[in-house]
Amino acid sequence: MEPIYYLLSVSYTISMIILIILFIIFSIFIAIKTDIKHFVHLYFVRLIILIMEEHHIFVEQKVDESKRTEHEKYLRLAIKLAEENVQRGLGGPFGAVICKDGQIVAQGANEVVPKNDPTAHAEMVTIRLACQELKTHNLEGCVIYSSCEPCPMCLSAVYWAHIDHVYFSHSKHDAKDIGFDDHFIYEELARELHERRVGITQLLKDESRAFAMWTESDNKAHY
């Protein structure tokens, strides 16, 4: 690349980053000074994300090449679990494996249908098994390998479990193509409560003492 074009490219990227920072500052200012946080979330934040995606400012975490073979080995196992689940007619085409220190802690597949449990996604099943195996609710230091990019529920569980890293094969777009579309959930989360398709109503906030009791309690386990 010619030096002049390189400089122009760098200048353009820096300008876009500055613009994004200004948008963020303005959004925070508006959210503090007014009562239109929902507006800021829907328009300014989405605009920032679109700009960053358009100009490839998001940087995907790179795979450590020295451990690529190891990661691929466990991911292939997750894929195998998904394929076996389909062959046996036991549930959806999803499998997951959780490892810690290079050792398999737990593995599982989608069990929604056989267990009559809509939360029994492969990642959820495997996280539960891993917690039981390690006798802890904190899976810090663990890595999860999933045959598909985790849905919003499973991704939330990954965060709550403090799992270090997620490796997946099929994307959420691939899942959508075969009938497993979770994009509407992201859209729902961006809506005000009264705009969501599921009725959500807040009641009896003033009567509940649970939060105050938790705040005052000396006998509580943080997680």
For the structure shown, list the relevant keywords.
single chain, 223 residues, alpha+beta, Cytidine Deaminase, domain 2, 2 domains, 52% helix, globular
How many domains make up the 3D coordinates?
2
Q: What would you call the structural class?
A: alpha+beta
Main-sheet strand order equals 2-1-3-4
- Can you tell me the overall shape? globular
The run of helices and strands is HHHEEHHEHEHHH
DSSP helix count?
A: 9
CATH class of the largest domain: Alpha Beta
What would you give as the CATH superfamily of the largest domain? Cytidine Deaminase, domain 2
CATH topology (level 3) name of the largest domain:
Cytidine Deaminase, domain 2
Nearest-angstrom radius of gyration? 22 Å
Quickly give the CATH architecture of the largest domain: 3-Layer(aba) Sandwich
Termini gap: 51 Å
Overall mean pLDDT stands at 84
Q: Helix and strand layout, with pairings?
A:
Blueprint: H1 3-33, H2 37-54, H3 68-88, E1 95-100, E2 103-109, H4 112-115, H5 122-134, E3 142-148, H6 152-160, E4 165-170, H7 172-177, H8 183-189, H9 210-216
Parallel strand pairs: 3-4
Antiparallel strand pairs: 1-2, 1-3
Helix pairs in contact: 1-2
Notes on the structure:
With 223 residues, this protein is of the alpha+beta class. The chain has two domains: 54 residues; 124 residues, Cytidine Deaminase, domain 2. It is built from nine helices and four strands. Strands 2-1-3-4 form a four-stranded mixed β-sheet. Helix 1 packs antiparallel against helix 2. It is globular.
